[in-house]
Every structure is written in structure tokens, then in C-alpha cells.
Amino acid sequence: MNAVHQSLQVPAAGVVLEADAVVPEPAQGLVLFAHGSGSGRHSPRNRYVAGALQDAGLATVLADLLTPEEEQVDARTGSLRFDIGLLAERVAALTDWLVEQEHTAHLGIGLFGASTGAAAALAAAAARPASVEAIVSRGGRPDLAGGLLRLVRQPTLLIVGERDTTVLELNRKAMRELGGETRLEVVPGASHLFEEPGALEEVARPAGDWFVRHLRPAPHGA
Q1: Element spanning 77, H or E
Q2: Is the pLDDT of residue 203 over 90?
Q3: What is the CATH number of the domain that holds 43?
């Protein structure tokens, strides 16, 4: 697979965020990852899913939503990872930046959110209805997006582990709030972090199918 690999520094909402981008040629769409619960672009789980999406012909951008200084504060306090407004603002700013870049301007954008990052992704999707075309949540907390769920019209796939019972119930409630096409995928035997053998594969496969189905590919020759 031919692909463009880039390490990026992205100006976003008054700060500069680090990101790693992989853009296959041709690409079927682009997926921006919104990490949560103290995770970042080096998350092995999200990198595994990103690799599977790349194999499906999708471009991926894994970005740190916090600066190194903010990550140090969050490591001590755990407060910023739950600041959904801050995280959503940065996801939206990253989306705006990607829309303007040569390698990604013609690609439909999807958001992949994990844990609290899923709430940030949904809130950003509500704020960017023209830019964001689809959302996938892995073990997410969509409830933390609050009343913004009703404003999300994009197709949304919620993936939750069968053993993650509290989060599973929160996702079922969120489905009744979301305004667009919604599907819940329950991974048998999986816990919140999908650490069981084969569990992440059961995240990556439906996520890839969802994005390929709903994202606009680049025009031929773009």
C-alpha cells in the first residue's frame, strides 16, 4: 500500500497539538481519533485500530488532544480528560485544519472516539455538521456529551464490550438521544479496554465497514 506518513504540529484552538497522519493513495475517507481518559496518539489500542482502517483504504490522524504540559497536569489531577468542552473544541479545530490541507481536503471525515474522547467526538460532530460525516465510539461515554447528543445527525456506531455493563447501559440510553442513524455493536466477552484475545479485531472490523460505507472518498485523481 502506498501511503503518505506525516508527523504534524497542528495549531488548534490556541495551542499546538502533536499528530501522526497516514494517508493511503487512494484514500476512501479520513478518520480522526479522539482519545480519552488520559490516552494519546501512542495508545496501542487506537494504533491497532488505525492500522486496520489504513488496510481498508482509510486515512488516519492520531492526535494528542492535550499539550505535554497539560498532560502533566492531567496525570496529577485527572481533570482535563473529563473536560469535554475543551476536548471537543480541539477535535473541531483539528477537523477544520484537515479540511484545509492538500492531502486531506477532498476526503470525507469521520471521528473515532474512545472513552471520554467519544463524548468529545460527538460534541464536535454536533458543532461541525458539514465537515464530519460519521462517528464510531469504542467503549465510549456518549452520555458526557449531554444535550448535544440530540444535535448529532451523522451516522453513529457505538461499540461496547459485553462485560462493560455500566457503559453498555449508558450507550443504550444515548441511542435514544442521538438524532441520526445509530447502531450498537456489542463485542461478546469483551471488557472496557477490549484486552481479551480477538476483541480489538471485533472493534476494527465493524468500524472500518462503517467508515467505508459512510465517508466520501476523494475524487478520482485528487
Answers
A1: helix 68-77
A2: yes
A3: 3.40.50.1820
What DSSP state is assigned to residue 144?
A: G
The string of pLDDT tens digits covering residues 101-150 is 988 999 999 999 999 999 999 999 999 999 999 999 999 999 999 999 99
Note if the bond before 26 is cis, omega within 30 degrees. yes
Residue 120 lies in a domain: yes
Domain count, the chain: 1
The residues that bridge with 62 in the sheet, in sequence order, are 20, 33
Q: What angle do CA 36, 175, 120 make, to 5 degrees?
A: 25
As a whole number of angstroms, the distance between CA 115 and CA 73 comes to 19
The structure's pTM equals 0.94
| Residue 220, in any domain of the structure | no
Tell me, yes or no, whether 86 lies in a domain: yes
Q: Tens digit of pLDDT for each residue in 44-64?
A: 888 999 999 999 999 999 999
CB-CB neighbours of 200 under 10 Å: 21
